[in-house]
Structure formats: C-alpha cells, structure tokens
Amino acid sequence: MDDAAPMGLSPAVPTGSDTGPTTALLTDQYELTMLRAALADGTAHRRAVFEVFARRLPHGRRYGVVAGTGRLLDALERFRFDEETVAFLRRRGIVDDATADWLRDYRFRGNMWGYAEGECYFPGSPILVVEGTFAEAVLLETLALSIYNHDSAIASAASRMTAAAGSRPIVEMGSRRTHESAAVAAARAAYVAGFASTSNLAAGRCYDLPTGGTSAHAFTLLHDSEEEAFAAQVAALGMGTTLLVDTYGVREAVRTAVEVAGPGLGAVRIDSGDLAVLAHDVRAELDALGATDTRILVSGDLDEYAIASLVAAPVDRYGVGTALVVGSGHPTAELVYKLVARSVGTEPDSPMEGVAKLSTGKPTHKGRKWAHRRLEDGTAVAEVVGTHPECTVDGCRPLLVPLVTEGKIVGREPIAAARERHLRSRAELPPTALKLSRGEPVLPTTYDDGEHAGHTGQLEQTGHTRGEGGAR
Amino acid sequence: MDDAAPMGLSPAVPTGSDTGPTTALLTDQYELTMLRAALADGTAHRRAVFEVFARRLPHGRRYGVVAGTGRLLDALERFRFDEETVAFLRRRGIVDDATADWLRDYRFRGNMWGYAEGECYFPGSPILVVEGTFAEAVLLETLALSIYNHDSAIASAASRMTAAAGSRPIVEMGSRRTHESAAVAAARAAYVAGFASTSNLAAGRCYDLPTGGTSAHAFTLLHDSEEEAFAAQVAALGMGTTLLVDTYGVREAVRTAVEVAGPGLGAVRIDSGDLAVLAHDVRAELDALGATDTRILVSGDLDEYAIASLVAAPVDRYGVGTALVVGSGHPTAELVYKLVARSVGTEPDSPMEGVAKLSTGKPTHKGRKWAHRRLEDGTAVAEVVGTHPECTVDGCRPLLVPLVTEGKIVGREPIAAARERHLRSRAELPPTALKLSRGEPVLPTTYDDGEHAGHTGQLEQTGHTRGEGGAR
C-alpha cells in the first residue's frame, strides 16, 4: 500500500499521500468497541467477508452508478492510528491498552474486490467485497460507506442528467449548496458520470478536472453599467468569455454584449427566467447581430427533467448546481456494509460460514459473492450474483475487479478510465434505462447460489423492492 | 486573525490552525476571474457589502437554524493563496500575473457580522454580512455558502427532531450515509441543535463532542451464538453497555441479554421492525426480568415524524442516522450570497449605493442590513430587517453580532454556547413553530427600509413565498 498516487494534492481532501491527515477517525465508535470486545475473546482474528451493496435503488431509479472507488483507495492508504489518534481513544476510554497496541500497528492487509468505478449497479450488486480478519475489516465500515454512499448518489443523479443532455456538455456548479469537501467529491463523481467540467477549483486541482466559470451578477452590479462590466470582463478574459446576461434585461444585455465583444463573443449565460423562451429569443438576437457562433449556456435550478424539457431549445451547454449535489432528490445511495461470511475458528484452514441477520424486511444473502452481467446481443439482460467465482450462465462478463491484494492497492486508475467505463456500461443497458420517469431497475438481480441451486444454472430471481428478496 | 483556537485538531477538517491545508480553492472559478477583471479595471477596490440570506425556507418549514458560523471562522483563517495554489491558478490560465501577486498577499481584512450560531432564522434574515473591498469579499462566496448551506440544513432538521424527542436524548449516527467530512460537520450541527451525542469519532475529537456506540449486527454474527456475543461485549465494555437485540429474535435476545449481563444491564438497542410494538414488548420483558433500569434505545430510519410517533412508547433514547444527514428531505438550506451595496468610487469617502439584480422571481433587498427580533411578552412576533443599525420598533433584540473586525476573528465561542442559544431561541418562538406539519414560517420578516419607509417605524411585510418579496 505504498504506491505513489500521482493525482495532485487537494487542499480539502489530500489524496495519494501517506503523509496527509489520518482518515482513521472517520469512523463510528462502535467499530472500535466491537474490535475491543472481539480482541478480548479472540474472535477478532476470525477471517471475515464484508460486502457493500444496495438493498434497493432510490424510489423509481432504473440503475445506479458506482463512484468513490478511487477515493476509497486513497482514504485507505491514510487509515492509520497515529499516536495522537490512539491517545484520543484511550483518553475517552473507548479502547483499552491491548486494543491501542493493536491499532498502532494497523494496516489493512486483506483483499478488496469491487465493481470498477463508473459501472452501473442494481439491488444486491456486491459493489465492494472486503476480505480480511474481522478486526481489520470491521474498522472500514463507515469510511467505505460514507465514500460510496455519497459519490454513488451523486454519480447516479449525474448520469441521468448527462443522458438527458445528450451531446450537450454539462458544467457542474453545485459547490455552494453542499459541504465544502463534499463539493470536491461531487465534482469528481459528476465527471465520472459524464459531466464536462466543474466550477470547483479544488476538484480541478485534486483530480485534474477541467474547470470553468467567468462571472456572477455581483460583477455586473459592481460596475456603473452593464456595458462597463462586460467591457471589463472581455478586456481581462478575452472575447471567448461567457457574459452573464440576466442581471437587468436579457435582450438588451445580449445587444450590449455583442456591441462590446463583437460577434466573436464566446458565449452568454442565462441564469433565471423561462429558459426555453429566453434561449429562443437570445439565439434569434445573437443571429441577427451576426454572432452566430456565440453559444448559449443556461443555468438556474436545472435538473434532469429541466434539461430534458430544453431538448428543443437552442441551448449549447447546461450548468447544474443544487440538483447535482443533492443527488436530484436522493442524496445518499443507502448502501450497507454487511458481514456475509466468517470462519468458524481462527486457524488458517478454518472453514468459512455464511451469516446473515434474520430480521424481516432487510434481505441479506449469505456468503461471499461474485457478480456477472449477462448480455444478449450486446444488451445487458440480468445481474447474476452467485457464491462461486465462475458464472454458470452463458454470455456473462465479470464485474468484480481486484482493488487491494494482501494490503497492496492494485486498483488505481485514471479518472478518465472510470468516465469512459460509465458511458460504455450505460450504453449496454436496455434503452428503458434512460427513461427519466419512475420505474423498476432495468436489470433483475438473479442469484446463482451454490447452497441452493448448485451449479445447474438454475437461477432464483429476487424482486426489486424491499422485503421481497427475503433473508435466508 | 491569529487567535489560537483551542478546539483540538480534526483529522478530516483541521480547524483553528494556520498551518493546516488552505481552504482557498474551495471556491468557484468565477470568483477568481471576476477578481482578475475587477483588478484590471480598478473596481476591485470599491468597498462592498455581501449578505448571506435565504429567499425562502424549505417547503413547509416553520423556522431555520443558523449553523456553521464557527466553522466559517476556522476556514477563513486558513483561506490563503500559498505558492502551490497560485501556481495551479497560473498554470490553468485562470489568473494573470497581477492577480497572482494580489492573491499571494491576500488576507481578509474586512468585517463580518452574523446571526450568532444556533439562532433561528427566517426568509430574508441577513445571516451573514461581509464588508470589505469587492476583491476581498467576492472570494469568500462559495466557502461561506458551502458551510452555511450544509450546516444550517442539518441543524434545521435536527432541531425538529430534538423538539419531537422532548427530554429524550438523541444520538447522531448518520456518518455512513453522507460524505466522510460532511459527516463530521453534520455531527457538530446536530449537537448545536440539541442532539446529545454522536457516533462520529472525528467529530468527537475535533469539536470535543460526547460520542457513543457499542456494537453492530456483525458482532453478533461473528460469534457462534448471541449469548457468546453478548458475553464478550459485557466482559469488554461492562454491564453498563448497550446490547443490540434484533439480530435474530428480539424477545429471546432480551432474555439472553439479562441472563448474561444481569438486571443491571445498561441498555438494549432495537434497530428494525415495528419499534413501538417492540419497545412495549421489550420493556415488559425487561421489567419482568427485574431489569427495570435497563434503558431502551431505538434506531432504524428514524426522522422527526417517527420520533413523534414513538412519544407514547417506552423508549429512552433515539438513534438517528440517514434523516439527519440528508436534512430530513432538505439537504441544503439554499442560502445565497449577494452583493447588496458597493461604493460609487474607490476613495475612502466614496458613498455607498445599494444594488440588486432586477430579474423576476428572486427578491433581493438593496443595502446593508441590520436585523432584530421583535418580542411581545417574551414571545417572538416578527423579524425586523432594516437598513439602519437601530430598530425603530419597540421590544426588539439585535440579532447581528460581530464575527470579524478588520480582519481579526472576534466571534469564536464554545460550541456549548451555540447549543444553549439554540434552545433559548427556539423556546422564544410561538408554539406553532414546533408543529411538524407543513406550514408557513412562524415569524413574518418585516422590512424597515430607510429608503422607503424612513424611520417612521412603518413596516412593509413581505410574503413568505418565493417571488412575493419582489425586487426593488
């Protein structure tokens, strides 16, 4: 786990560096108290498999998008109990001396597999599989969930927006509406799901994302007239800049903008009003003024539905803020981290046993899982989840890739790879996946469970809604 | 701005230290490009007043809660353009040499006033007033909004939950459902709004909050039997611990718990099922076993409505997760940061002029504002917002307190002060404030605007809903 991660250094979310602040306390207290009790009775050293999965998608969503994988690997590298951290836990009485000693030496030395970042997922998809001793794996629950729940929620919403926008680029500009560090991660997740750029400079620096942004209404109001404001902006940023034209009257502003910048003006932005009507008016005005190549950027409370409603409007680019960072109504992916198997004893050859909570309404399938996507003629038709590495069904591609092998991070990749993967993964889904209306997940999750169906290829199909899956 | 802030050091969100990572890029790019253009034409040096306010409360909410003030002051102290940061901006072509030079020397040297943290707020409340040159104030837009929008959304939801819970404590346990750094801030905001403790260890360390948490279902499943799991937990954590009793059957688990720990068992936790029914069953079972002092903690998708529905159930404590960190349906406060006044020229005695965007649907009142809460017989009856420091109406208490004076942070306070203030501020509201049903803000915001009504005390009352306020 000492690979260098040449991804730059974020001021808010330092990544890829072992010297950054520890992530070890981004953790719920019970992980430490469970560790303490399990170290005391020896069960901490049983081998364990935890899985991250969604029991259901947010209501009406047809697919989810995995994001956060790269961030988890960065955070894992910095998950260390340094002296100050251990001292805090001792001072609070959360851990005893034996646990403190164990924590000082803590490195995750187990294995992780996961859906590659950008991949689509469905209820029951084992997005992340964590294998190690109970002690080393239980500590990662909160950190893994926080990262995946946030980033996947944002990417899942973002993917609907980029699907609705088609070939028109979307600029992410939601930083102000969410926590300042969540904003950086949101910009990254949006990029994975196909956004073109972000206004967030920390994201630009940390993840080498394209950034954009030119001016706000305050800049116009600062000046004595709109004309002076536009002239100042063009003088400083060139005529390729984007002028904001809705501080006073839009049509007059467009005329002023072209007078000031000339017909080579890069773009105008409309941030309020009836965007469809205004876009038509502004396009006509720009064309009449000879500014036929000047682009129109619209923003202002856009979500995937508003984007879709503008499909016939002469809009060149969208700016999306609030709806993106709040996951368009679903700010968390509601993924869970569950123990699905553990060894009977602590000896290296002690057999593994599948485990699950028995409570109603929360289906959990026992045993460590593998996942495949079944395709017919290039179109995905089912998620096949089973307790064996090989899929017994024809036409399946494997979904789990190695992320960490015996403590060594092996799953890092450029963010562009995740972005390209997402577009491929989405394109492979049935066309109904891209409908914005509420619906069922477009792929059923079928369980190819060795304990029940054997290797016969006979599949059990579980329902899509909560409770139907049933606990075994 | 070099006051020491003895609040500990967070691994995720270092605070109170000038040596931590800079916050300067937690910023939208347009703030830098506006700065660049305004430095070039000299308008950057005009004095300016920006205000943070809500155009409206989230639909149906009766009051909002200000949170994030302390975090903003910490972040402001670390808002510095170091060489690496400037180099990034130059490399990307976002700033020119003159702007880069200006940024290297940047310190906020202006003034800030704000609603004290924990105070209730209403549409139009000037939660934060930032006064400085345009250049120094425009840079803080995104950072200020990110912090206030997140923290106030969480505190506003949390306050409804603590109001519904009455004297029963609530434990915050939502970290896993939100971004890992947002989780730390959410725990802090929840505490401001009256939560008793948090499961988040980084929040415990960074803000010295009480923390709690003992075990998850995984701990029971790790063991060969529930009895062994309970015995291990009691052996390690003492009989005052909280045992989780819904991994298999709740009633059997309660009997096992008391057998293992004795009737002095601290508490049991129920995390699924029909909590009201189960709480009654568990209470009866505990009492029958002589464990009359054993408390019952319930958790599992609780929000303010679920808490209220459990008022008659024998529940001692609540654990709230997802609903808290997503703001119970409103994850952002939708606060805005608007230029409301700027000087006509750049000379020190140049007069100030109120400014506002003219577009429809987004009411903005011109001019720097002061805010007071008008009380009758100890009950708040109106928010009085005016363009003069003194309120012309009887029975008003001032709401703006100094936070930064000529660049020096003067508004720091212990988080306990904000927490106590919130309880006082909420208690002062009309009783309908605590109704959970959808309603209008319980206080009207009245404008005592020197430009229009003069000092006559004649007030204009604006509507509560979007658009009714009207732009002037």
Automatic annotation (TrEMBL), chains A, B:
<feature type="region of interest" description="Disordered">
    <location>
        <begin position="1"/>
        <end position="22"/>
    </location>
</feature>
<dbReference type="InterPro" id="IPR036068">
    <property type="entry name" value="Nicotinate_pribotase-like_C"/>
</dbReference>
<dbReference type="GO" id="GO:0004516">
    <property type="term" value="F:nicotinate phosphoribosyltransferase activity"/>
</dbReference>
<feature type="region of interest" description="Disordered">
    <location>
        <begin position="348"/>
        <end position="370"/>
    </location>
</feature>
<keyword id="KW-0328">Glycosyltransferase</keyword>
<keyword id="KW-0808">Transferase</keyword>
<feature type="region of interest" description="Disordered">
    <location>
        <begin position="429"/>
        <end position="472"/>
    </location>
</feature>
<dbReference type="InterPro" id="IPR013785">
    <property type="entry name" value="Aldolase_TIM"/>
</dbReference>
<dbReference type="GO" id="GO:0005829">
    <property type="term" value="C:cytosol"/>
</dbReference>
<feature type="domain" description="Nicotinate phosphoribosyltransferase N-terminal">
    <location>
        <begin position="25"/>
        <end position="147"/>
    </location>
</feature>
<dbReference type="InterPro" id="IPR006405">
    <property type="entry name" value="Nic_PRibTrfase_pncB"/>
</dbReference>
<feature type="compositionally biased region" description="Basic and acidic residues">
    <location>
        <begin position="463"/>
        <end position="472"/>
    </location>
</feature>
<dbReference type="GO" id="GO:0034355">
    <property type="term" value="P:NAD+ biosynthetic process via the salvage pathway"/>
</dbReference>
<dbReference type="InterPro" id="IPR040727">
    <property type="entry name" value="NAPRTase_N"/>
</dbReference>
<keyword id="KW-0597">Phosphoprotein</keyword>
<protein>
    <recommendedName>
        <fullName>Nicotinate phosphoribosyltransferase</fullName>
        <ecNumber>6.3.4.21</ecNumber>
    </recommendedName>
</protein>
<dbReference type="InterPro" id="IPR007229">
    <property type="entry name" value="Nic_PRibTrfase-Fam"/>
</dbReference>
<dbReference type="GO" id="GO:0016757">
    <property type="term" value="F:glycosyltransferase activity"/>
</dbReference>
<keyword id="KW-0436">Ligase</keyword>
<comment type="pathway">
    <text>Cofactor biosynthesis; NAD(+) biosynthesis; nicotinate D-ribonucleotide from nicotinate: step 1/1.</text>
</comment>
<comment type="function">
    <text>Catalyzes the first step in the biosynthesis of NAD from nicotinic acid, the ATP-dependent synthesis of beta-nicotinate D-ribonucleotide from nicotinate and 5-phospho-D-ribose 1-phosphate.</text>
</comment>
<dbReference type="Pfam" id="PF17767">
    <property type="entry name" value="NAPRTase_N"/>
</dbReference>
<comment type="similarity">
    <text>Belongs to the NAPRTase family.</text>
</comment>
<keyword id="KW-0662">Pyridine nucleotide biosynthesis</keyword>
